[in-house]
Amino acid sequence: MAGIKSLVKDTAVYGLSSIIGRFLNWGLVPLYTYAFPLDEYGIVSYLYAIVAVVIVVLNYGMETGFFRYASKEEDYEKVYCTCLVSIATTSCLFIALVAEFLSPISSALKLPHHPSYIMMMAVTVAVDAFTNIPFAFLRFRRKAWTFAAIKLINIGVNIGLNIFFILLCPKIYESAPQLISWFYEPLGGATFSVGWIFLANVISTMVVLACLVPWMRVKRFACDTLLLRKMLNYSWPLLVLGVAGNLSQGMGQIIIPYIFPDDPDGARAMVGLYGANIKIAVVMMMFTQAFRYAYEPFIFSKAAQQGENKTMAYCDAMKYFVIFGLAIFLGVMYYLPILKHFISPQYWAGLSVVPIMMIADLCFGIYFNLSLWYKLTDRTRWGMYLSLLGFVLMLAGNLILVPAIGMPNGYLGSAWAALISYAGIMTVSYLLGRKYYPIPYEVKRIGCYTLLAALLWGIGILCDFEYAMWGTYIVRTLLLSLYVLIVVYFENVPLLSTKLHKILHHIDKTTSKS
Question: How many angstroms separate the CA atoms of 95 and 105, rounded?
Answer without folding.
Answer: 12
